Amino acid sequence: MSRFLKDNRKILILAGLLVGQLAIVSLQVPLGDQPSFFERGVFFLFAPLERVVHGVFDGAGRIWSRYIYLRHVEIQNQEMRDELFHLRQENILLRNELVRLKDIRDIEGVLGGKTGPFLVASVIGLDAANAYKSIVIDKGSRDGLKANMAVIDRNGNLVGRVVNPVSLRESMVQLVTDDNSAVNVRSAKSGVLGQLAGDVKNGRCVLKYVLASDESLAEGEELITTGYDKIYPPGIKAGRVVSIVADSSLFQKIEVRPYLNFRDLSRVAVLTRLPGERP
Amino acid sequence: MTSASLRDVIHGGAGLIAAFLLQAALQRVAAPVLLAVNVFAVTVIVFAVLKGELAGAVMGLACGLVVDSFSLGIFGLAGIANTVTGYAAGYVSRKINVLLPSRMVVFIGLMGLLDFSLWVLLTSVFFGQAVPWDRGLVFVQPLLTAVLGTLTYTLIRKLKARRDG
Fold it and tell me: What is the pLDDT of residues A199-257, one digit of tens each?
């Protein structure tokens, strides 16, 4: 027996490592979408390293732009850009509400509370295995972030939602292009309702559960959130329908190009009021 | 723990942190082509060639779990693929001579392909998750792994030779 163990030591260790990992995979089953303690631990341990790299690149960029290239202009420019970012977010959210609510009384009643506060965050990491699934941002529970807070980009377009793990200073954001993402949306023009899910194969989205008999939706129509999912506030622009295929199945196959732009995802805004939460 | 195995642990830890930092840096400078470069596969294969199959398997486990912690995919999948690749790379490199750069490119390319294939197999076939093909960009991964791996290995050998005089 001992000779067998000695002769096959390496292959037995390999088998042990693989069985251990299969056990880790199995442990996830009862947890569902919630990350395991081990996964949280590794995230908490390595997320600060990502922040360091982000800081190094930002620092190098700042040294160049502030101290070598027009120091004062750059500082002023940065302040104005930050202010513009905030104002643009507020403006877009207010405009979305105005479009959604045609009755002026409704607008007066809802405007104050609906837009809600938001927090600007920098994107410090992309999903290590699949870039269309998630990003890591530099704000965490210390900044008041919680799971299920909606995230939008600098133009007010839907990016995704905060998901666990949320560490003290970093959080993970599930993108709308993740195939496990589900956002209730409606067409801004025809009012067709559906569920927007991600398609990680090509970084786009699909609109699900639109009956084949419903012919009111057309290519090029814009999709906005409805708020029915109790996660994403209503009126946020999510994407545009690019193709509709109706075959013999019950539902249409609708491809959607999300407005979320991967090349312009350095900063995002987290809507810090959860749906149903009072101001 | 012997001094040799302690050294291996330190080298492994340093390699893992270096891979993570490089991955984070690549995200900043080359995010659109990130799918084509698998820094962790390069690290696992080179480490396995340098240290052997067991060290390669353990490195694969560590790298895979880090990758999975920063991904919304199934936790443990990249770990399994990397562990098998690390073991295979270490084992095969002890059986055949892969030290010539021309052989090393082919060998690391094949190991990169093994890692990629295992990950795709586990992700799509066994767990039914979608694989990000990104209009075929992902298929460049084994090729870039081969080039980067060979360069890394050559650099380490040269640094080691200089240090040993």
Answer: 877 788 999 998 888 888 889 999 999 988 888 988 899 999 999 987 778 888 999 99
Helices (H) and strands (E) in chain A, counts: 5, 12
pLDDT at A176: 93
Whether chain A has a CB inside 8 Å of the CB on B92: the answer is no
Q: Show contacts of A38-45: CB within 8 Å, 24+ apart.
A: A38/B65, A38/B75, A39/A165, A39/B68, A39/B69, A39/B75, A40/A164, A40/A165, A40/A167, A42/B65, A42/B66, A42/B69, A43/A165, A43/A167, A43/A170, A43/A172, A43/B69, A43/B70, A44/A165, A44/A167
Lowest mean pLDDT among A30-34, A45-49, A158-162: A30-34
pTM over 0.80: no
> For residues A73 and A65, what is the distance between their CA atoms, to the nearest angstrom?
9
Dihedral sign (CA A143, A149, A154, A160): positive
For residues A26 and B99, the answer to whether their CB atoms sit within 8 Å is no
The CATH number that domain B3-163 falls under is 1.10.1760
| Cα distance between the two ends of chain A | 69
- Within 13 Å and on the Cβ side, how many CA atoms surround A103? 4
Give me the residues of A, 198-237, that contact B with CB < 8 A.
199-203
Cβ distance of A262 and B76 shorter than 8 Å: no
- Other CB atoms within 10 A of residue A83 CB: 10
The residue-averaged pLDDT of B42-71 equals 92
* Residues within 8 A of A (CB atoms), B 124-143 only: 129-135
How large is the ipTM?
0.85
Cβ pair A141, A243 in contact under 8 A: no
Cα(A58)–Cα(A34) distance, integer angstroms: 32
For chain A, what are the domain ranges?
2-31, 33-279
**Residue with token string 């360069």:** B151
Pairing of strands A204-208, A222-225: unpaired
Q: Which amino acid is at A173?
A: V
Backbone angles phi, psi at A120, to 5 degrees: -85, 135
| Residue B126 exposure: Cα atoms within 13 Å on the Cβ side | 14
